[in-house]
């Protein structure tokens, strides 16, 4: 299953050259991950409140392949690659039409509010499979 998150490039997303500033791709994929999890039925606020668990990025490997510019319509495609007891690995691609601009492998971990590793609750693992 691939989740698709549409977005538009705003002026604030660009640098002096008129292209998307590299760090903003991380913001784009963060927004897409939030919507991906929400559409799976996972309420992150409730997970934190009820279970004391939050998600954090543990590892990210990114490739910048081409530039996006002001007013481009983009899509972030998020695909699950692996789910374990404490880890979720996602592939996130940013595209303009069929052109791949940015690709990242993102590893998320479950942490307690004090920053200690935690197992994902069984119902959350089921939602992610």
Walk me through the structure.
With 129 residues, this protein is of the alpha+beta class. It has a single domain (2-128), classed as Thiol Ester Dehydrase, Chain A, CATH 3.10.129.10. Helix content is 24%, strand content 42%. It contains three helices and five strands. It has helices spanning 24-39, 44-51, 122-128; strands spanning 2-8, 53-64, 73-83, 87-96, 99-112. The chain has a five-stranded antiparallel sheet. β4 (87-96) and β5 (99-112) form a beta hairpin. The mean pLDDT is 95.
Describe the SSE topology.
Layout: E1 2-8, H1 24-39, H2 44-51, E2 53-64, E3 73-83, E4 87-96, E5 99-112, H3 122-128
Given this structure, which CATH class is correct?
A: Alpha Beta
Kindly state the number of beta strands. 5
Q: What is the average per-residue confidence, as pLDDT, rounded to a whole number?
A: 95
CATH topology: Thiol Ester Dehydrase, Chain A
Compact overview of the structure:
The chain has helices at 24-39, 44-51, 122-128, and strands at residues 2-8, 53-64, 73-83, 87-96, 99-112. It has 129 residues and is α+β, with helices and mostly antiparallel strands. It has a 5-stranded antiparallel beta sheet.
Task: Jot down its keywords.
129 residues, alpha+beta, Thiol Ester Dehydrase, Chain A, five-stranded antiparallel β-sheet, 3 helices
């Amino acid at each position: 299953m691939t989740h698709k998150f549409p977005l538009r490039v705003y002026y604030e997303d660009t640098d002096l050259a008129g292209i998307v500033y590299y760090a903003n791709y991380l913001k784009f994929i963060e927004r897409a991950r939030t919507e991906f999890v929400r559409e799976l039925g996972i309420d992150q606020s409730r997970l934190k409140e009820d279970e004391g668990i939050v998600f954090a990025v543990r590892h990210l490997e990114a490739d910048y392949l081409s530039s996006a510019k002001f007013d481009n319509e983009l899509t972030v495609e998020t695909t699950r690659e692996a789910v374990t007891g404490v880890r979720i690995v996602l592939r996130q691609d940013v595209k303009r039409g069929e052109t791949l601009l940015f690709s990242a492998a993102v590893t998320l971990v479950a942490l307690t509010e004090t920053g200690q590793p935690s197992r994902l609750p069984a119902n959350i693992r089921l939602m992610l499979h």
